[in-house]
Specification:
Layout (H helix, E strand, L loop, with lengths): L7 E2 L2 E4 L4 E5 H8 L3 H16 L10 H11 L4 H15 L1 H17 L5 E3 L4 E5 L2 E5 L3 E4 L5 E7 L7 H18 L4 E6 L4 E4 L6 H21 L2
Parallel strand pairs: 3-6, 8-9
Antiparallel strand pairs: 1-2, 2-3, 4-7, 5-6, 7-8, 9-10
Helix pairs in contact: 1-6, 2-7, 3-4, 4-5, 6-7
Length: 224
């Protein structure tokens, strides 16, 4: 019989009996571009959150991600996202401003006539870390081409090198998630799209990702 994770929220969990740390792909992207000191602070905060006996905090961007998915299959994507922003206005004006900016950027990045495609979940693993690809969007273009999209909505500007690390992991799992799709990252706050160049040094990216995975697990173990 398998062991249930202690708790799950914001895409992360810790299964003690299996000694596996599981983190969502977008949370992994946060870690990749955090820098050494901020990364340790991030892991410490995450660990405290998931060991706290109280209810898990709701995903801040959860309603927005769900809105993106609905918008892809809506006859009026803008109206669908307007409703998401409207609900945010009723609860938190600061959050509503963030949602508005991300929604507008997503619509600018979305090719005309694109529709949603179901995406299977998958995970990349190294050592005791599992990076779960569970917030990704499937997009079919009018040409028939398909995209596997990671919607990044955070405040820090996404840099290309960090995006490449996640894109490499997405590329390694694309056959399980959405075969023949092209992995891309949408920085929705800036309306910017990232794609892994065909000449990118994938061996180097693999080594980078594996090294960072080991570091993440070690930081989790050391976190107070």
């Amino acid at each position: 019989m398998g062991h249930e994770p202690l708790r799950t929220t914001e895409g992360l969990s810790l299964a003690y009996a299996q000694r596996v740390v599981s983190i969502g792909g977008l949370q992994w992207l946060d870690y990749v571009q955090a820098g050494p000191r901020r990364a340790m602070t991030m892991v410490t905060t995450q660990k405290k959150t998931y060991l706290d006996p109280g209810p898990g905090a709701p995903a801040y961007y959860g309603p927005l991600h769900a809105g993106f998915r609905r918008a892809l299959n809506s006859v009026d994507p803008a109206a669908e996202l307007d409703r998401v922003v409207g609900r945010a206005v009723a609860s938190n004006l600061g959050k509503a401003k963030v949602y508005r900016q991300a929604a507008d950027g997503f619509l600018r990045l979305l090719p005309r006539g694109a529709t949603g495609v179901k995406v299977a979940e998958s995970a990349w693993s190294e050592a005791e870390l599992q990076v779960r690809m569970h917030q990704m969007l499937g997009v079919r273009l009018l040409t028939g081409e398909q995209l596997l999209v990671a919607p990044y909505c955070k405040e820090p500007v996404l840099d290309p090198e960090s995006a490449d690390v996640l894109l490499y992991l997405m590329e390694s799992q694309v056959k399980q998630m959405l075969p023949e799709a092209t992995p891309v990252v949408f920085d929705t706050r800036r309306g910017r799209r990232f794609k892994l160049h065909r000449r990118a040094n994938r061996r180097q990216l693999d080594a980078c990702a594996r090294g960072m995975a080991v570091g993440y697990v070690r930081q989790w173990e050391l976190a107070a």
